[in-house]
Amino acid sequence: MLVKILIVDDQEVFRNGLFRVFNKEKFGKIVGSVWGGREAIKRALISKPDVVLMDLTLPDISGMYTTKKISENLPNTKIIGMSHLEEKISMIKMYEAGAVGCIEKESSYEEFIRAINIVRSGYYYIPTSLANYAAGIFSGKQSEKIKKRTLLDTLTPSEMETLMFLVKGNSSQGIAKKMNISTKTVSYNRRNVMKKMQSRTFSDLLKRAIKLGLTGLTKED
After folding, report:
1. Same domain, 40 and 112
2. How many CB atoms neighbour CB 149 within 10 A?
3. Residue pair 214/167 in contact by the 8 Å Cβ criterion
4. Residue 217 per-residue DSSP state
5. 85 phi/psi in degrees, rounded to 5
6. pTM score, two decimals?
7. Of 2, 29, 37, 208, which alpha carbon lies 20 to 30 A from 153's?
8. Same domain, 18 and 97
9. 8 lies in the same domain as 99
10. Residue from 12, 17, 11 nearest 108 by CA
């Protein structure tokens, strides 16, 4: 039986490449190929895929938040995060959001198939580069980088999503609409973000976010 796969990535060329390979290898049945998180959640609930290939950075809501929502509603669906080589910390947080694997987008198509087979067998898929990075953390080689990102690591996926939109200048009403939550929840998230980021004013928050490199994790609307 073919594996039912949902591909979530904002780059159409990349999605089409995976689509062609899976069809050529007769490995999987593509039940959806979408560019955004909200559409991914809707499509997943309808098609109930075996595996979701999820980009970490999406135009509307983050892959992390999308992963959390799909995992909550479809616990049997295996989610594999997709990222670039330098996004190691974000990859680690994807596991916390509910992913059972992460793969570098630069990987070969054979490696994508291998990752899918591993998670469908009930195991976690962890790429060698991420395993080495984690080992480096424990050995202290990455200690300075981790210190810089500690504050961000305390944020929940929803709070991180709110912060990303705040940094891009979105209003509370705009954030509520994009995240499909109430303005009351946005205000609650904002208060928690300010507290966790040790910022008294929005200006302080913005400066700290820039210093921590958060702006490099976001995309313009």
Report:
1. yes
2. 16
3. yes
4. G
5. -55, -35
6. 0.64
7. 37
8. yes
9. yes
10. 17
The tens digit of pLDDT for each residue in 59-116 reads: 999 999 999 999 999 999 999 999 886 677 788 888 889 999 999 998 999 999 999 9
Beta bridge partners of 101: 80, 125
In terms of residue numbers, what domain contains 161? 144-217
Q: Based on the domain organization, do 123 and 169 belong to the same domain? A: no
Last residue of a domain, one of 135, 162, 186: 135
Both 161 and 199 in a single domain?
yes
Look at residue 48 and give its three-state secondary structure.
coil
Phi/psi-derived region of residue 40, left when phi > 0, alpha when psi is between -120 and 50, beta in every other case: alpha
Token duo for residue 34: 């979408």
- pLDDT tens digits, the chain, 221 residues: what are they? 789 999 999 999 999 999 988 888 788 899 999 999 999 999 999 999 999 999 998 999 999 999 999 999 999 999 999 988 667 778 888 888 999 999 999 899 999 999 999 999 999 998 888 877 766 655 555 555 555 555 677 788 888 889 888 877 788 898 999 999 999 999 999 999 988 888 888 777 877 777 766 654 433 33
**Which CATH number does the domain housing residue 97 bear?**
3.40.50.2300
Which run of H or of E encompasses 7? strand 3-8
- Number of neighbouring beta carbons within 10 Å of residue 121: 9
Q: How far apart are CA 206 and CA 46, in angstroms?
A: 39
CATH number at residue 150: 1.10.10.10
Amino acid (one-letter) located at 85:
L
